[in-house]
Specification:
Chain lengths: ~160, ~160
DNA sequence: TATTGTTATACTCTATAACTATA
DNA sequence: TATAGTTATAGAGTATAACAATA
């Protein structure tokens, strides 16, 4: 079930507090406010570094490889919306640390298949809690209604990022 | 109220829909998913450049100066959580374009007061719609309930970023 | 001495352009 | 010719260290 088929209810039944308070805000104004909030929040999250100091792109690459399997460098670049040279660099950084592997494409000799290694998976598992510690601490301090709002927002934001 | 006394649980009386859908997701798991969604979404937003090509920090500086008035460079650096040299650079870029002004502090000769100029305010007003066009377009395509979720999330995220 | 801000310098991430290898 | 990927190079943003001016 996704939010497209089962939308959250608006005004009358939203929980008190943050949800109902801004329900009437127009898309244009909301975009401005939301963008500022997203950028500020993201900067705070990014400030919490893991020991390995992987870039956002590198973490995202490990994550997508873990989720949907080996991809070519071009596919990774398209997925992350960076140029091929940037992805070459990001993947090389992962491969140098043993977190990802590069292998020849079975049929097309031009292509390179990138996969997450076992060490990469372990890194994803092991460091997510540490990487997310800052955010999780704040989430835990929220009241349940606000946390539910963010859980819902997460799905909506993912769809927006995919669009 | 902290993470230990109030575990990441959700009130069963929450509404159905987007919020309720993920109501049981723990703070740790939610943190991971939310972080990925925030980072991906933010990267997409940032990819939409304005003509002036101000950095996130520069826009945020203009915005905060517009919102709460003149601040010293140190105060701006603390607020944006960057180091003083980075803020010097950001503010110089704004001042060079006439979007902000630098003036001597009335009592403390060491300090510099930074203020948004009229051109800076105009830039904020004029370019927000353009900067936010990408996001606003996606928001407009959402059903109202999902938009309400993001409006609520915006406030929660702002609080988190402030914490 | 401590604090504010700047300069010097380096690092990371990204991009474009030019190149190699393969289809 | 066209595509996949790499190398070379540059630009933006940030950081630390050293320094200047002021409190």
């Amino acid at each position: 079930m996704n939010a497209r088929t089962v939308p959250a209810q608006v005004d009358p039944s939203l929980p008190k507090g943050a949800g109902g308070r801004q329900a009437r805000q127009g898309a244009a104004t909301l975009a401005a406010d939301l963008r500022v909030a997203l950028l500020r929040c993201t900067r705070r999250i990014r400030a919490e570094k893991s020991d390995l100091e992987l870039s956002d792109t590198q973490y995202s690459v490990l994550s997508v490889l873990d989720r949907i399997g080996p991809l070519t460098l071009r596919e990774l670049a398209d997925h992350e919306r960076v140029q091929p040279p940037s992805m070459t660099r990001a993947v090389n950084g992962l491969a140098d640390r043993g977190l990802a592997t590069r292998s020849d494409h079975p049929v097309d000799g031009r292509q390179v298949l990138v996969a997450v290694s076992e060490a990469g998976r372990a890194e994803l598992r092991e460091t997510r809690r540490r990487r997310d510690a800052w955010l999780a601490r704040r989430l835990a301090e929220l009241d349940p209604a606000d946390r539910a709002v963010l859980a819902a927002a997460k799905d909506v934001l993912s769809r927006i990022a995919d669009s």
